Structures are given as structure tokens and as C-alpha cells.
Amino acid sequence: MAANGHPDLEKQRLLLHDHEEKHFTSSEVVRDIILGVSDGLTVPFALAAGLSGADVPSSIILIAGIAEVVAGSISMGLGGYLAAKSEADHYYKELKREQEEIISVPDIEAAEIAEILAQYGVEPHEYEPVVNALRRNPQAWLDFMMKFELGLEKPDPMRALQSAATIAFSYIVGGLVPLIPYMAIPIADKAVLASVGITLVALLVFGFIKGYFTGDRPFRSAFQTALIGAVASAAAYSIAKLFRT
User: What is the C-alpha separation between 183 and 191, in angstroms, rounded?
Assistant: First the structure.
């Protein structure tokens, strides 16, 4: 305790400087990669299995698969772009509304600051200086309300394009995996067996990595991811065989 009765702020600064928190902060990028790779591995895999069940030559399956990967990557990338753009539009709409409220009803907005801080157990005599400090700094006030009242973070201006590119590229990477055997094996019945083996291994590895980064149990995530891909491909193959006969 310092002589003036306050905590030793210099010591706290040193402790904070030495303390390194290891948080994973690229959650949006990881989410996009997971979305792209998971769909990329599953959809072309099911398509190739279904066409194999219909006794279609490997060359036709490969052409159809590549066409699906191209179309799917464009569709998924566009979906990611529109989703990120919608989030940005929503943020700036709420930002404008909050700016207007700070100007038109400042006392109500100040009361909302007090209410938010009280939810964290801060007493009135403790949060009143904070409220007054924010009222003197409109930009900090606005940032506080956006984050703690509305739970909105300022979006990256490049987020929409980055999301589209990440999802599309991830879809292509995932989508090419089940098609590799059809590039080398001309007989579809043999190629589909190799495709199943390669894709299930890829799904297991991808599921494990996904579980590691998302905080889920990696082995359970690997099993679930592989199971979904296996069920989708088996269903497509069985339906094709059914209609073929």
C-alpha cells in the first residue's frame, strides 16, 4: 500500500506488463475456415459417392465434382460476404441511433451506464465518477454503450471480403480431397473406396483440429465430424443405387 492510501499502481503496472494472457482471438477466421472445410469435405464427398452408386465413370464424377466445388465455393463465399456485410450494417445503424440518444437524452443514457456498472457489483459511490468521466468524453461514452449495452464490437472494414475469401478457399481445399482418387482411378467402384478412406481420415483430422480450437473435446469432435460425412455419403450412395436398380 502506498503512502497516500491507494494501491501501489506502479507495482500493478509492472505485474500487468509481465503477465501474458494466452487467448485465441482469431475466432472469426477459425469459424470461416471450419464452415468452408466442413462443407467442402462433406458435400462433394456425398456427390461423388452418389454418382459412384449410379455407376457413372470416374471422369464424369470428377467433372461434376469440380463443377460443384467451384459453384459451392462461390455460393459459400457470397454467403459469408453477405453475413459479414449485414453485421457491419447493423453495427453502424445502432451506432447512429446511440449517437442520437446520447445527444437527445443524455441523462437516460447516463443512467444506463450506472445500471450496467451496477450489474457488475459496482456501488453508486464507485460508479458515479466513471459516469461523469464518460459524460465528459462523448466518444468513449459511445464506445462504452456500444460494447456493454448492445454487445457490439466495431467490425473490421475488410471483414466481409476476408470472410468471403476464407470460406471460398477453405471450401475448395476441403472439396478437392474426396475427388483426388477419381483423378487417378478410372473405375468408379474402386475410386469411391479410396475416396471414402481418404475423406474419412481428413474428416477425423479436421474434426480433431476443430475441437482443439473451439474448446470442444477433440476426439469427440473428430468422431462427430467423420460420422456426419459418412452418413451423408452413405445416404447419397444408397439412394443412387436404389434408383439405379
Answer: 9
Q: Residue 205's CB: how many other CB atoms inside 10 A?
A: 13
Classify burial at 160, counting beta carbons within 10 Å of its beta carbon; exposed 0-12, middle 13-18, buried 19 or more.
buried
CB 53 within 8 A of CB 240: yes
pLDDT tens-digit profile, the chain (245 residues)? 444 445 554 555 555 455 455 444 457 788 888 888 888 888 888 888 888 877 778 889 899 999 999 999 999 999 999 998 998 888 888 888 888 888 888 788 888 878 888 877 777 777 788 778 877 778 887 888 888 777 778 888 888 899 999 999 999 999 999 999 998 888 888 888 888 888 888 888 888 888 877 777 888 888 888 888 778 777 777 776 676 65
* 52, 55, 56, 61 alpha-carbon torsion, rounded to 10°: 10
pTM metric for this prediction: 0.74
Separation between Cα atoms, residue 53 and residue 47, nearest integer Å:
10
